[in-house]
Design a protein that fits this description.
Largest sheet: 8 strands, parallel
CATH topology: TIM Barrel
Strand content: 15-25%
CATH class: Alpha Beta
Helix content: 40-55%
Strand order of the largest sheet: 7-6-5-4-3-2-1-8
Radius of gyration: 17 Å
CATH architecture: Alpha-Beta Barrel
Order of helices and strands: HEHEHEHEHEHEHEHEH
Amino acid sequence: MPNITERLNSAINSIRFFEKKSQRVENSVELIAVSKTKPISDIEQAIAAGQRHFGENYVQEGVEKVLHFDDSSLTWHFIGPLQSNKTRVVAENFDWIHTIDRLKIAKRLNEQRGVYQKPLQILIQVNISGEDSKSGLSPEEVMALAVQLAKFDRLTLRGLMTIGIKTDDLSVINEQFDKMHQLLQQLKKEFDTVDTLSMGMSSDIEQAIGNGSTMVRIGSAIFGARAPK
């Protein structure tokens, strides 16, 4: 059975393969290793293999891991839903947040980010599939929020995040991911800090990279199946 190092290398090789297939610049897609519910020992193995970007969904667990490693060479991405009563510890400890879809949350993060820290890098979550079960803004709502986010001095608007629809119909996935890419291009015209599209997981990585993703989020394909939380 492959170990974490082998699975991590396999994930990276897949990313590089699909970059080349899509005529993307090599190393233009960053791998976010989703380490939620995984023990410190698993993350240590990934770090030893060269991984530096990690994604966490749960506030308390994620903050504990950030504080445990206390390593400035690591970049921590918060990729889960964020409630207003949990914003302070996220603002103080994470480097990126992928799930901004409310001005209220962003305002709190801006107020709570330390003045001695680098600005918090943020992505607007878009519900591109329109599914009721998913968080995020509709594409039509994105620009209005982006205008407000750009005013905050402790936040830097970097782009967009979406979670793809679960379907075997690749044309549907490609259509929705293409819409995300177009939406990112619109934002780029208005905001010079925008350069990031967090899109794609193990099941739709090829379609994501083919449609301009710059970050893919992979968990179980690296760390193995998650235990129930």
